[in-house]
Design a protein that fits this description.
Number of helices: 14
Shape: globular
Order of helices and strands: HHEHHEHEHEHEHEEHEHHHEEHEEEH
CATH class of the largest domain: Alpha Beta
Oligomer: single chain
CATH topology of the largest domain: Aspartate Aminotransferase, domain 2
CATH superfamily of the largest domain: Type I PLP-dependent aspartate aminotransferase-like (Major domain)
Bound molecules: glutamine
CATH architecture of the largest domain: 3-Layer(aba) Sandwich
Number of domains: 2
Distance between the termini: 42 Å
Strand order of the largest sheet: 2-8-7-6-5-3-4
Radius of gyration: 20 Å
Structural class: alpha/beta
Helix content: 40-55%
């Protein structure tokens, strides 16, 4: 057994969902909406199961899906991509793993902003890389450009950016993206840009990819997720976009990791990406759930941080007059109140981060949200 895995715990998302199932709690922890997802996509998948080949599509993905992804980004983000620059993966996490396998060598340093999706650093370490953590400070979680400049050294190879940003639900400004891009060009870094929340913005701003910044196409990997776009997290269809030698290397990594992903679901996602009404309708529903949970929590005396994107709201426990740490609150809330949440401190290494912030997923039915608020209000 590799020592990294011998010493590793279970990811907080899996742990909280397992606890939630075991205890019958309302799960506002791991990010996922309930149910089967948009009906038109389900129907497209059924049609594909019945009418289409069940055999291997090309390793890089079904050509129709790769084309649909290009059309989607051209229309929504002004990115002009070729289908052979897109590789379909088994979820965004596989894309992240492929990119790190393909681009990070032993001794390479990789900048990881904290709090961070808990897959980044272990993957970097597994390939012999060294994660270098740069903290983002609540409540805005802005990029500390001075700290970042200090963290970049001669061994720095990669910057991992997650925009919009999970767990905080914030989004980078255009000026921040431009500055991150400038640093990548100046220091010859590649950027792994995890943009799985690109379709889940509530601040009225269009999503802008760092890949659109000058000099970034040849040094950037953009990661996307059908699970997040369509609220179908269990479908595990994601993708990565990169050009030239980097794109080719990603394809090599992916071919021996999963080779390809469930083909009927690829057909359905290809159709779904053209369904603007489905995407808009779903977004409207999420916006209402977001408002409902915020209002409920605030009425119950919780302080909720500003949120621009993602399926998550963050509660500031200290500002809400609660003396417990986020880890203690989360652990007790799932057992005693029957509500699962994610303590943000779990997304920092070695307890370096704040310990007063709790992440709650709002993409749930109204009655589950109301019930959860009532339980938390009683518990606090
Ligand atoms: N990104 C998801 C979340 O924030 C978790 C992903 C996973 O558990 N694989 O909830």
């Amino acid at each position: 057994i590799h020592p990294l895995y011998a010493a590793m715990g279970t990811t907080v998302f899996e742990r909280m969902s397992a606890l939630s199932r075991e205890l019958g709690a309302i799960n506002l922890g791991q990010g996922f909406p309930e149910g089967g997802g948009p009906l038109p996509l389900q129907q497209a998948a059924v049609r594909a199961l019945q009418d289409r080949s069940a055999q291997y599509p090309p390793s890089g993905g079904l050509p129709e899906l790769r084309e649909a992804i290009c059309a989607f980004y051209a229309a929504r983000q002004g990115l002009s991509l070729q289908p052979d620059e897109v590789i379909v993966t088994s979820g965004a996490t596989e894309a992240i793993a492929s990119a790190i396998l393909a681009l990070v060598q032993p001794g390479d340093e990789v900048i990881v902003f904290e709090p961070a999706y808990d897959a980044y650093a272990p993957l970097v370490r597994r390939v012999g890389g060294v994660p270098v953590f740069v903290p983002l400070a609540p409540p805005r979680f802005a990029y500390p450009l001075d700290l970042l400049a200090q963290a970049i050294g001669p061994r720095t190879r990669m910057l991992i950016v997650n925009d919009p940003f999970n767990p905080a639900g914030t989004a980078a400004t255009e000026a921040e993206l431009a500055e991150l891009a400038r640093l990548c060009v100046a220091h010859d870094l590649v950027v792994l840009s995890d943009e799985v929340w690109e379709g889940v913005r509530f601040d009225g701003q269009p999503h802008r990819s760092i890949l659109a910044m000058p000099g970034m196409r040849e040094r950037g990997v953009k990661v996307g997720s059908a699970g997040k776009l369509f609220g179908m997290t269990g479908w595990k269809i994601g993708w990565m976009v990169a050009s030239g030698a980097i794109g080719q290397a990603l394809g090599r990594a992916h071919q021996f990791l999963t080779f390809t992903s469930a083909v009927p679901l690829q057909w359905a996602v290809a159709e779904g990406l053209g369904m603007d009404d489905v995407l808009d309708g779903q977004h409207e529903g999420w916006a209402m759930s977001r408002a409902r949970l915020r209002q409920g929590l605030e009425q119950a005396g919780f302080t909720v941080l500003p949120n621009a994107a993602t399926w998550f709201l963050c509660v500031d426990l200290a500002a809400s007059g609660i003396a417990m740490t986020d880890a203690a609150f989360s652990e007790r809330a799932v057992r005693e109140a029957g509500v699962a949440t994610i303590p943000i401190s779990a997304l920092y290494e070695e307890n370096r981060g704040p310990s007063h912030l709790l992440r709650l997923c709002f993409t749930k039915p109204d009655d589950a949200l109301d019930d959860a608020v009532e339980r938390l209000a009683r518990f606090r």
